[in-house]
Fold this sequence. Notes:
elongated, Glutamyl-tRNA Synthetase, domain 2, binds glutamic acid
Amino acid sequence: MLDRVVIDALFPxxxxxxxxxxxxxxxxxxxxxxxxxxxxxxPTGFVHIGGIYVATIDRDxxxxxxxxxxxxxxxxxxxxxxxxxxxQFARAFDYFGIPSDETDxxxxxxxxxxxxxxxxxxxxxxxxxxxxxxxPCFATKGELADITGRQQAAKIPTGYYGPWAIWxxxxxxxVRAKLDExxxxxxxxxxxxxxxxxxxxxxxAIRGELEHEANRNDTVIxxxxxxxxRLPTYHFAHAVDDHLMRVTLVIRGEEWISSVPLHxxxxxxxxxxxVTYAHIAPLMKKTAGGKRxxxxxxxxxxxxxxYIEAGYPAEAVLYYLRGLANGRLAELPLEQALATPIxxxxxxxxxxxxxxxxxxxxxxxxxxxxxxxxxxxxxRAWAAQFDPELVxxxxxxxxxALRALTVERDGVDNPRKDLRKWSDFxxxxxxxxxxxxxxxxxxxxxxxxxxxxxxxxTANYAHDFAxxxxxxxxxxxWFNQIRELAAKHGFAANAKEYKKNPDTYPGSIxxxxxxxxxxxxxxxxxxxxHAVTQALGAPEVLRRLxxxxx
Length: 550
Ligand code: GLU
């Protein structure tokens, strides 16, 4: 084994002992059963909706147990760091209202970025080296490739283990010689001698009893000495951090299940109490032939920004995700589902399908329950970021916007479900706003073509309508104006009559009212016309009717 003096010389002289950190991060004083959970995003890419899914579960389990949820940025892979990723994390956590309970400056267990915890990791690496539980490895890329090649040729498992681990039992003199030469090295964990061929059993909070092959590899725990800062690998950092942050429950993606045997060995070797693991099944996407993992590279809906940019209300998305985690929550109304704890033992082991159509329905149902002022506030907040022109208009036309939002919403049993997300606002409500509405160019405007009504008749009818227009409160009375004028201008009283003798009439009452609808809304489909006129106000209604007359 290497001499302690040689080992200590590899580290800063003032590096604290593990005991210092143990004292600095004492066990938390929390009620019995309180769970400390953490979400560990890596800024090597943007947050995936699956990340929000896991973070939601983390936060929920901690909160309902009286514990703590924290976000720990796992940025030890600095070469792969993506610019802007950290800001995007912050945006995403903020949008979905799932901030960390502890942050730098507000928490006793930080720093909460792994890159700022270098000294902590080094204390523990030195400790393992001192006890021969880890060792410096000088194997070059070429040597490692050669080892793999020979293992493949011999049809045995590849890896750096047992007799293949060329520096595992190296003579201290050989190690010293390399160190004196200044050769770069990594530090490897010494896998337990008896690991080869062993199986380990552990209990997963979602999956129950699991059994896996024990780890036999001498895994790298500290990256190459020719890099600064000198950072650990994920495996090692996770063990040290989860221990010192006093995490009790690690909820993470199922891709980490195969690392549990190594992680349990690390906890054991470091003398830490093991944490409980809960491995979440990934979100899936339906494909022609079945389903596959939602992929950051090919599926736009995998990224969190997709939801933020489209303006899906955060509560609707969270509600949807909770339903994917625990099917019974999808059966509850939104408010109740958001307040009901997620249970790990009810999370499925098969990945749930993300179905955007379902999400849009949920979202439309949810928005339909909101009062107009709340919708307006949310649309404005969304537009402030993604549609500046709309913000200016909504600012100038607040009253009109609120009136528009009452149409078929206030005082009705089945409120309109015309908004699935905030970006739908322009298409659904834009016509209310003079700034966004192009009045017809006259009776030959192309938007009228589908109605097939003669232009001269249209112009006369519109002229008469505008001339005698009464802005009546009563919907029936208001509509009677159309009925009377339609009759006067020769429209059939109903569609049936018109169909019997299509040449006798310019159209039926249906076409007559559609002319007004297109004049007022620009479209043959719109909310209730009378309600629209009430929101627009008489002067604007008249302006639009006159435009129809040409
Ligand atoms: N940083 C890891 C990842 O992004 C987190 C894994 C964990 O939660 O332990 O996948």
